[in-house]
Design goal:
alpha+beta; five-stranded antiparallel β-sheet; 11% helix; elongated
Amino acid sequence: MKLEELAIGKSAVILSVGGEGALRQHFLDMGLIQGTEVTMVKYAPMGDPMEIKIHDYELTLRKEDAHKIEIKEITKKTENKNDSFIFQYKDHPGYGESSYHKMNDHQIYHESDLLTFALVGNQNCGKTTLFNQLTGSNQHVGNFPGVTVDRKDGRIKGAGYNDPQYGDIVVIDRAAHSQPPIIKRVIGRAGDEIDIDFDTGEVRRNGMLLDEPYINEPTYINLGAEFPAVVPEGHIFVLGDNRNHSSDSRDVSIGMIDLRQVMGRAVFRFFPVSAAGALTD
């Protein structure tokens, strides 16, 4: 049975999608993929085009295109069978959701374990952009319903991130202090001498003045640390871009950051929405 034959108000499951090349890809981009349920909403007065409902949104399709999509109508018996299906729910472990997880108290995974993550979200919320940033891929980013219709796999680049580079924006674990993670920029690495002139706001690394186009204002505020300071082995020195309103390595309660506290590199900003997008150096 072809999609063009489906009666108004009836639903069906897509069995196969015909067409070739760009046309078939267009069908897939719209969400018309095998196993998806569609409902016929209405036909135009002359029978062409038609409107169908798929993935909770309406889609207009030409009769010629609908002829290329093979379906199986959902009968009343099938619907009743589906309605009687009972889902078996299992409690989610909730690790890290209600409180910060201390790895030294309860090791859930071994460092060698391979973890698989799935990116799930509403349409056009940035899943593909985030996927590209995490994996280094160059998947097509679309601004229309149904773009994420094929499975895309990738390995997170920098997995086991323990060698932050200058300028990296990193996420730092503060669970040991019962505080949420902080996000700061790497200024110094092991062996570097960091000096800050709080009168001029200038920051120097190994005697060289840093060019910092990313900061909001010069570094005028000292939070108790003494300078110049040498970054010890296994640590980094970090500063926030909003220099005079940031708690960072200038703060004696934070100080130099142990590399074991670095959770990873921040690659994408979701909030505020006005500033959402990929983070750059």
